[in-house]
Amino acid sequence: MEYKVVPFAAHLDHKTGYSNHVSIQLEQLINKYSEQGWTFLHMETITNHLIGTAGCFGFGAKPGFTLVSNMLVFKK
């Protein structure tokens, strides 16, 4: 069995309904990989905590932040 993990980040448009627009993009991505023989299993949400940097003597310091990513999991 083979697995594929693909990032999913919806591109939102202020002119259209958000949930419908996101669902269409998700559907298109799932269909694209389905046509290649992949079976969609589920979506995983991955949370990463990135630490900040202190900079030099405090100049150029960058705060840490949390990055949340959605990943689609397929199998073949």
In short:
Helices cover 24% and strands 38% of the residues.
What features would you describe in this structure?
- Helix content is 24%, strand content 38%.
- With 76 residues, it is α+β, with helices and mostly antiparallel strands.
- It has one domain.
- The longest helix has 18 residues.
- The mean pLDDT is 89.
- It comes from Aequorivita iocasae.
- This is DUF4177 domain-containing protein.
The count of helical stretches stands at: 1
Work out the radius of gyration.
18 Å
Distance N terminus to C terminus?
6 Å
Query: Structural class of the secondary structure composition?
Result: alpha+beta
Mean pLDDT: 89
Main sheet: which strands, in order across? Answer: 1-3-2
- Shape designation: flat
Number of strands: 3
Low-confidence segments: none
Helix content class = 10-25%
What order do the helices and strands follow?
Answer: EHEE
Beta-strand residue fraction? 35-45%
Integer count of domains:
1
| Oligomeric composition of the shown chains | single chain
Sketch the major β-sheet: 3 strands, antiparallel
List the helices and strands and how they pair.
Blueprint: E1 3-8, H1 18-35, E2 39-50, E3 65-75
Antiparallel strand pairs: 1-3, 2-3
Features:
76 residues; 1 helix; DUF4177 domain-containing protein; 24% helix; 3 strands; alpha+beta
